[in-house]
Amino acid sequence: MSTRAWVSRFLPFAKIKKLAGGGLSSHYLRPYTARWIYFGLLKQARPFYLTECWRYPYWEFPSAEAASVLASASSSEPDLLFLPMADWHARTQRTQHLARALAEAGHRCFYLNPHLGFEYAATYSRCCEHRLAQLAPRLFELHIRLPSEPVIHQRLPSRRESRILYEVLRRSVELSRGGRLIQIVSLPFWLEVAKKLKDSHQCPIVYDCHDHLSGFERLSQEIIGLEAEMFRHSDLIVFSSQTLLDGKTAGLPWLRAKSILIRNAAGTVETPPRQVERARSKKIIGYVGSLDHWFDVECVRQAALRRADWEYVLIGRIEDPSVLQLAELPNVKFLGELPHSELDAHLSGFDAALIPFRINELTLAVNPIKLYEYFSYGLPVVSTNLPEVSMFGKLVYIGGNPEDFADKVETAALESDASIRQKRISIARRETWAARARQLQAAFAALMANRDLQSARVPPEAGPEGSQS
Q1: 3-state secondary structure the chain
Q2: What is the tens place of the pLDDT at every residue in 298-356?
Q3: Which terminus of the chain is less hemmed in, N or C, by CB atoms within 10 Å?
Q4: 293, part of any domain
């Protein structure tokens, strides 16, 4: 697909997001304006992840059919409820990887679709049922239908919305073995409902703190402002980078005491053979990930200008229009957001891979998943100076400014030492999501043991008769 065609296909959806940013009234109009104007008039505007979720078998929830399916997937491990930042069916990120790995490790996992109704083809007035879909053995997706379909990055849920969320989620808790369920929260948007589930059903809260939230330009301040309370109410905080852990817990020993470090990781798939000869003259330099405000356009521009005979492939959804400046260069190609299953064919053809992030609070705290994914293929990685990348020393190439970045791209793409490539692959095979799941399981075991101990110390509440005296 040409750059022009890609832009005309995917940018209309960016306008949809703006509909939810102009005040409360626009939030309630969004379900109609999006479907009738954009999804109605622009047939290609509906993103694939809003339809991909319905390719899996699903049932009304709660229902006898859903309960039966869930019963067949129960195990002795605690159930896990993921309250995420990202849609399962969009770009695969940390939460999806962890959920899949923990389901494979024996946990029955519930992953809440964060669109809260926007994924439905019809508006709430025509379809108001909640649904449970099965994504894989022991891995389920919950679709909770809220009338206004809130954008979870832009405002907190109303009291009515929190009540609906709680009523549906508590049914999943009550279907757990002995009510043994752990909540894994990725965004303070979910704090109110998580607290209710903890108070009513003793479901511990694990806050997976994987980003410096104030670094996101489109995340509402009221959500960012709740993170301190999120820390306070959580039983365990998991940080994805050392910088993030050190920065958030500095001077707070009580927070440090209940925090652990679990970095990102690579998948367990075997590294495929290279599809192209390494000695070819035309190199392919690639990037996979969001094209947002943290993407350093100038670094990529300088690299593309330096070697106009090489091809630069950018895979990901354009979130910031400044990235479109690169469309002017004939050797830069935009492929758009691709399903995770299609990335292998591209990654195995890259000669070098990029992490061109601007240096700011957000990026300095990040542990890039793409680094491990690039390492899975043995790829030379060129990055700006990020702590969690530079710690790999000679296995990566660090560009201090756009000109230096371009120099490093040229050096990396011409790398010929097979032993360095093998060292990267070895790291990726060791640092897997399955290994991260085992770390989490050890932490979960301690959480549940403490919960059971606390339960044994608290006398049971008075029954209905006693409560009326």
Answers
A1: CCHHHHHHHHHHHHHHHHCCCCCHHHHHHHHHHHHHHHHHHCCCCCCCHHHHHHHCCEEECCCHHHHHHHHCCCCCCCEEEEECCCCCCCCCCHHHHHHHHHHHCCCCEEEECCCCCCCCCCCCCCCCCCEEEEEECCEEEEECCCCCCCCCCCCCCCHHHHHHHHHHHHHHHHCCHHHCEEEEECCHHHHHHHHHHHHHHCCCEEEEECCCHHHCCCCCHHHHCCHHHHHHHCCEEEECCHHHHHHHHCCCHHHHHCEEECCCCECCCCCCCCCCCCCCCCCEEEEECCECCCECHHHHHHHHHHCCCCEEEEECCECCHHHHHHHHCCCEEEEECCCHHHHHHHHCCCCEEEECECCCHHHHCCCCHHHHHHHHCCCCEEECCCHHHHCCHHHEEECCCHHHHHHHHHHHHCCCCHHHHHHHHHHHHHCEHHHHHHHHHHHHHHHHHHHHHHHHHCCCCCCHHHHCC
A2: 999 999 999 999 999 999 999 999 999 999 999 999 999 888 889 999 999 999 999 99
A3: C
A4: yes
